[in-house]
Structure formats: structure tokens, C-alpha cells
Amino acid sequence: MSGYAIERLEFSKRLSSGGLEDVLVLPRETATKLQSPALLELLEQIADGSEQTQDELAEAVGRDTHGVCDDLNTLFEADVIEFGGEGSEKYPVLTHDTICAEPIVMHGTVLPERGRDGSRQP
User: Fold this and answer.
1) What domains does the chain contain, in order, with CATH numbers?
2) Which of 18, 36, 51, 69 could, after both became Cys, cross-link 91 (CB 3.0–4.6 A)?
3) What is the distance between the alpha carbons of residues 109 and 91, in angstroms, rounded to a whole number?
4) How far, in Å, CA of 116 to CA of 22, rounded?
């Protein structure tokens, strides 16, 4: 296991021991990409648990279906959502109760960003 993976695992364990048991720790780069107003609005709709299809979500947020589809794919690729239901009745659900970004500073040390290959960059 890489040093990076160990750091994220340690961080997740600390969150768990603090009472947050179902946690996804996103890389900072991913978390930054997911904080656009459009994605956050979709996440709010998904988090309410109402099991809305893609078309229903698009209507709820006042956006076109294709844009919502692209954003749902982004959230899926980041492991933030999965899909429940079947066929045209599929709906996104959160994969974890708590989703946060990896720490910027851990144990008094600034953690470097990850490169595209997953390695830490100086």
C-alpha cells in the first residue's frame, strides 16, 4: 500500500473513531471539481433520498437532461453516487453518508497534491 493510501486510510479511521462511520475521503483535486454550484445542487437533490430519475432531477434543478447526465457521470466516476432501480427507472443514490476531501495538513505537515498517476507531487 502506498504512503498516500495509508494517509487516507488513517484519516478515514480517525473520522470513524470520531463517530463518522460511513465516510468517503475524496482526493482534493476530485473534491474541488465536485464543488461547482450545479453539482452541489444535484447532490442536494440526491441527498434528500427521494429517488428521482435523471429526467426528474433535471426538471427539479431547471436544467437540460444532457447536462444533468454529464454531471451524474462525473459523480459516478468519483464514487460519490451509484444507481438504484432498473431500466428507465434508475435513480442516483449517495454511496456514503459522509463525503469529504482529504486533509490539506496532517500531523502538522502540508500534504502535497497527487499527480495523475496517484503519486504525491512535491
Assistant:
1) 3-110 (1.10.10.10)
2) 51
3) 41
4) 27
